[in-house]
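thought: fold this chain, then report.
action: predict
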Amino acid sequence: MDDRFEAVIGLEIHAQIATKTKMFCSCSSDAFDHEPNINTCPICMGFPGQLPVINNQAVHKGLAAALALHCQIPAFSKFDRKNYFYPDLPKGFQISQFDQPVSMNGWLEINVGGEKKKIRITRLHLEDDAGKLMHAEDSTLCDYNRSGIALMEIVSEPDIRNAEEASTYAKTVQTILRYVGSSEADMEKGMMRFDASVSIREKGDTKLNPRAEIKNLNSFKSLESAIGYEIEQQIFLWDEGKPLNKNITVGWNADQQKTYFLRDKEGADDYRYFPEPDLPPLVITPDFIDQLKKEVPELPVEKQERYQNEWKISESEALLLCSQIELARYFEEVVALTNDPKKAATFITSILMSHLNRDGFSIAETKIRAPLMAKLIAMVNEGKVSMNLAKSEVFEAMYMEGKDPEVIVKEKGLVQMNDEGKIQEICKKIIVENPKSIEDYKAGKQAALQFLVGKVMKETRGQANAMMVQELLKRLAE
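observation:
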């Protein structure tokens, strides 16, 4: 980015709340990959005379997410009608929250390039979703399966300064929502999307200039790309003497990798907000908030600190292990069974995750369940199999077949050789065959010793106890 300018970015994150039914009716909220318009009813289709009913579970999970984002929960909140006309909105209005939402004044800490930064959160409020438009060559079709699905909208303050911070913030929110069970936040299923408001100002300036709101970004990649493009586009317009003079709404063309004008940005007056007359206000008691706070689990940042401080796991390993709630649970189960957090972290982050990422699998899909991983680590600690063989041959067989490591070791004849007498004879043989390496080692070249260790390990097909080999070679070389 041009050093003359600073970007000012705010994000609105729309996340589907993990409920079985929609926000104000009993229709299924499972809208992904279904026949169009099968999960609808007169309420979510906005038929005259139909009365909505608040989904209690949606409120519960929305408030849990708000607490995890350090938001304040007011005792009184209400729903409002947000009026606009569009084919995917059958009621002619969205039921949302305007001036008295369920939460406000939160914050979230992100880690970018090893530095921590706090992003303020204006509010998390509840609303229902619109439907989906499907564009054909000469027509547009409406699928209302999503119409009425329970959403939370998380609105940040304009504290973000570049595309990387925006993506990191969005990923952190996604992780927290999954941790507390408030949303699956699966973008491939349309469960999470972003609107990014972008403006620029000269370095040192504090005023907020007119902004472009980029609508409906549905991946982290598109979020970063769209923000990056819009920043450069606004700098170009500034240098041309044509900076933005009003707030606008733009779309993102992923094929052309550029934003395009949609309309002038709507304001609150355009939406003609007024209290939803068919829904009662929400009154949240202190006792209910206290109960919710007890339900909020240990969050990613807290886990990371515990892993590093109590279990002495490296920062990079802790970050990876905390990035998914399922992965953290897997890791903690292995640690509970082995009491060896460092080896558990090594096997999971360096070996298991590299295989899963390569094959496009999640931790839930691995054939190496936590008890099997724990057994493999225990076998290494007990000297039943060498670390090298455990990481290679044994692990590969476990990964492909889900077999018990003890069975694999027996079938492949990989039991670690711990007989000092046998290993010593092999070491003597290797020393006789490699006199130059012994001379180099005595001359202070440590690499020569590792060369000899490698020769012994090759001779024993990797089964010799590597630590014992090294000690014996040192002793014999004296």
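thought: worth noting. The chain has a mean pLDDT of 92.
final: tokens above.
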